[in-house]
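---------- Forwarded message ----------

FYI, see the Enoyl-CoA hydratase record below. Original note from H. follows.
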Amino acid sequence: MTERQVSLRREGAVALVTLSNPGRLNAMTRAMWHALRAVFDDLHGDTALRCVVVRGEGGAFCAGGDISEYPSFRFEEASLREFHENEVWAALQAMLDCPLPLVAQIEGACMGAGVEIASCCDIRLAGASAKFGAPIAKLGFPMAPREAALVHGAIGDVLARDMLLAAGVHGAQRLYDAGFLLHVLPDAEVPAAAQAHAARIAALSPQAARLHKATFTALKSGGAAAQQLLATAYDYADTAEHREGIDAFLGKRPPNFRPS
């Protein structure tokens, strides 16, 4: 998958998804957006996996979009719309739809598209020297509406406005204070910490993780989605994982959540 510049490696119940664009701090090309969507589409039906770590290669997460491609398509409305709605958003939606917990391993640059990709993850850990921003106003264009709404919802109003209106770039501690990051760690500890967190998730009930993610999505959407959630919220009552978790607790033993 080297040509696609988005690789997938399985390590037991954990999948490692790696962004790679050497020399450009893993900036996203159009091919990478297509590859990212394909990787997450493939993950949807993989019952052996229980968690996904999303990371960048070579000490950077993702520096944004690969601007060297932009003159070839951004100056026509139809091709610009195609790029954002059917390439970028399709990949981000595939991440949002993934039933597995997603852990972002953020090192170095996390800018623009990198912030969008990180915003799709459930848990985000970053190195102390990581930098976050979306200074595209310097390039004369805004963040696409659905992408901006995603980032706004993840990092909050104050930082989203500063990033998009003032081209603000912020350190990891500021993003931690805003609630975007779970932990800020010494840079060298980030890979091990992200994989340890993923392993911790993978040892827990995959059914509970899947249903929690469905709950978060439905309640955020509201309306019919929330009503459907309430109608089906207790369908797990007579399931093996439900019984195993309680039996293990009462028997004072570790649970064994087998793949369904």
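H. also flagged this: Residues 205-251 form one domain.
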